[in-house]
Design brief:
This protein is of the alpha/beta class. The protein has helices spanning 3-27, 60-63, 70-83, 87-93, 117-134, 144-151, 160-163, 197-210, 212-230; strands at residues 49-53, 95-98, 138-142, 168-172, 175-182. A hairpin with a 2-residue loop joins strand 4 and strand 5 (175-182).
Length: 231
Amino acid sequence: MGARGEMSYEKAVRRLELLRQVHADLDGCTVCPKMKGPVVHGPPVLGRVMLVGQAPGPREGSIGRPFAWTAGRTLFRWFDESMQVSEEELRRHVYIAAVARCFPGKATGGGDRKPDAEEIARCRTFLAREVAILEPELVLAVGSLAISEVLGPLAAKKKLDALVGGVTRARWHGRETDVVALPHPSGASPWHKLEPGKTLLADALGEVKRHPAMDALLAAVRRERAARVAS
């Protein structure tokens, strides 16, 4: 292996170490008194595609991974139907994060409570570290809160109709990256089931599929499948 390959390997090992340290710090975090633990995060995936959700639901903590219940099944079905990639394959190649990493609890009027500004700010430090380590080329912001967190002023005062369906170039935590906004897959919201949401969601997934970072990911998935068949 040449020097460049050795450096690439060394960099990957170092990035994995840094991600594991972020996860260890997340696991030890107890600074938000209204949040319901445990902290939820995915594995330390070294990918150029990063998916950012809102916060875990009431089931994810016991299961131990993000998007592990109803909303997750809908989300992964979108990718399976549009890109023929399974949930397991996506989890192996996409780094999954969230605006908040603990279940916020239930809101007074029912439904999950939205993380407050202080909780979001505390978790933002972890997102900044993850972005610095991963240097994502494509960020998938899932749901209004995640879209607002990633796009910032670019999303201000805009409805989902104006945010979902295309690619936005944005600077997030010091990193220039492409952002594709997706609606939240919660069953509580019919937005993605009705027009214009249904068409805009299809347009957004098409943009994801055509993006070079996702194209490389899907190529890697096809190689893995071929290797399993060959073995």
